Amino acid sequence: MSCLSEKLAEREVAGRVIQVGVIGAGKFGSMFIAQAHTTPGIHLAAVCDLDLSIAREALRRTNYPAHLTDTTGTLSLSDGIASRKTILTTSAADMIAHPSLDVVLECTGIPSAGVAHTLLCCEHKKHIVMINVEADVLAGPLLARRAREAGIVYSMAYGDQPALISELVDWARTSGFRVVCAGKGNKYLPEYNYSTPETVWDHWGFSAEQLAKDKLNSQIYNSFLDGTKSALEMAAVANGCGLAVAREGLTFRPCGYQDLAACLKPRSRGGGGEEMAYVEVVSSLERDGRDVWNHARHGVFVVIEATSEYQKEAFAQYGMETDKTGWFAAQYKPWHLIGLEVGVSIANIMCRGEPTGSTKTFAGDVVATAKKNLVAGEMLDGEGGHTVVGKLMPAEVSLEIEGLPIGLAHGLKLKRDVKKDQGLSWADVEFSEDSQVVKVRREMEAIFREEFAKKAKGIKPPNGVLVARADGNVTNGVNGHH
C-alpha cells in the first residue's frame, strides 16, 4: 500500500489535484491555509467567510503566496480552479454547489451553519471535514447517516483531538487490545466552570501583546476553559468510537502521562474509572493550582488492558507507561496541531475513500447548564459566555430529561427561572420549531428515542451503528461482528 504523500504526489503529476473549499477563516481555517500551498496534490480553491476582510487577513497572516491568490476579486471559482488560484467568496452555497469542488472544510464553529452546510454537501455530493464539533455533537449522528445515504464521506478533522483520539482507539482495537479509557488533557479547575469572557484571560495567562497581535476571541477561548469544549470533544469521541459516557460526566482528575493507566483503570481494579470503556479528560492542574508533573494538557491518550500474561510482559519489555500491576498501560500523543494536520483527512477521503474518524452512534450529548441563577426573560449567550456551560452526559439521559443541547443555547429567551448548576430543558426556553437546525435536532432525538427503546428490548440497531461492549470493543448493529 502506498502512503498518502505518495498518492498526493501521483495526483499532482497526473493533474488530478484535490479541490478544497474552506468555510470560516478563523484559527482552524487559517492553519489549513498555511499548509495548503506546500502540499502537493491539494489546491485551496476557495476561502469562504461572511467578512472578506477576515479571509484576506487569514491569507496575509499565514504568508499565503500573493501570486496564488485572486487579488483582483474578479475571478470566478471556475477561473480560480483552472489557474490554480484561490478565490474569496461570501457564498458557501455557491461554493459547495460548484461541480469541480471535491472537499469542504466546515470551520465556522456555528452549529446552525454546520448543519446547513452538511446538508448542502449531501445535496451536491461533496465530501465534508466537520471541524465544527458544535454541529457534530448537536446533530452529527443524523448528519453522518445522511452523508452515508448521499454517498459522501463525513469526517472528523485530523489534527483536532477527537480524530487523534479516535485514531488511538482504532490502533488499540486493531492490535487486539481491550480499550479501557480514551481522552485528552486540558487546563482545568472546578471554578473555571463559571468563568466568563471577562475573566478568561486572567486564567490563560496571555500577555496584552499576544491578545492584540492574534485578535483572540474571548468567548471562544472561554469555552475551552470552562469545560464546554472538552465536553463537546468527548461527546464526539464517544459517538465516533462507541465509548461510554459516565453518568456524572467528566471528572477532570489531575493526572500526568505516567499515571494515566493507574488513575483511569476501573474502580474494581483499584483505579478511579468506569467498568465499561469510557471517555475522560484529565487536568493539567492540581486542585490547588500547581502544574501536574508531566501533564497532558495538549495531548491525547488511550488506556488499554493486557488480556494475557504475554501481553503484560510485552508492556514492560517495550517501555509502556503502566500501572503498578503492569496490566494497564497508556499510549499517548503529547501534542496536536489542529489545522496544520488536516491535510491527512483530505488525503484519506480522496485517496482511500475513508474518514479520519466519523460519528456512528449517539452515546454522548452536551446539555446547557446554568452558570448562575438565570431569570425568566434572560437571553442565553451560548458556549463560553456568561449564562451557560456545557455538561457531558449519556445521550439516553439527555433524552430522558429533555435536555437543551449547548449547541442551541444561544439567542434563546428563558421562559422561567433556572437555578445555578441546573441543567436546562427544552421547556425552559422559547424556540422556533420552523428553524432548520431545530428540526434536524428534533428529528435526531425522535430517531434515537426509538432506537434506545428497541435496544432496551434487545432489538439490534441499524447497520453501521456501533454498540459499546464491556471489553472496550464495539459491535456492529446488524451482523454482530467487531
Write the CATH architecture name of the largest domain.
3-Layer(aba) Sandwich
Give the mean pLDDT. 94
Q: Quote the CATH topology of the largest domain.
A: Rossmann fold
**Strand count, sense and closure of the main sheet?**
6 strands, parallel
GO molecular function, one term: nucleotide binding
Domain SAF: 365-430
Protein name: SAF domain-containing protein
InterPro entries: DRL_cat, Gfo/Idh/MocA-like_OxRdtase_N, NAD(P)-bd_dom_sf, SAF
What does this structure look like?
With 482 residues, the protein is of the alpha/beta class. It has three domains: 4-157, Rossmann fold (3-Layer(aba) Sandwich); 162-188 and 227-335, no CATH class; 364-457, Type Iii Antifreeze Protein Isoform Hplc 12 (Alpha-Beta Complex), CATH 3.90.1210. Helices cover 36% and strands 18% of the residues. The chain contains 17 helices and 19 strands. The chain has helices spanning 4-14, 27-36, 52-61, 77-83, 92-97, 111-124, 133-150, 161-174, 200-204, 208-214, 218-225, 228-241, 260-264, 309-317, 343-352, 395-400, 436-456, and strands spanning 18-23, 42-48, 87-89, 103-106, 127-130, 154-155, 178-186, 253-254, 278-283, 300-305, 321-322, 328-333, 364-370, 379-381, 388-394, 410-414, 429-430, 466-468, 474-476. The strands form five sheets. A six-stranded parallel sheet has the order 3-2-1-4-5-6, sandwiched between helices. A six-stranded mixed sheet has the order 8-9-7-10-12-11. Helix 7 (133-150) links the parallel strand 5 (127-130) and strand 6 (154-155). Helix 8 (161-174) runs parallel beside helix 12. It is globular and about 65 Å long. Residues 365-430 form the SAF domain. This is SAF domain-containing protein. One of its GO terms (molecular function) is nucleotide binding.
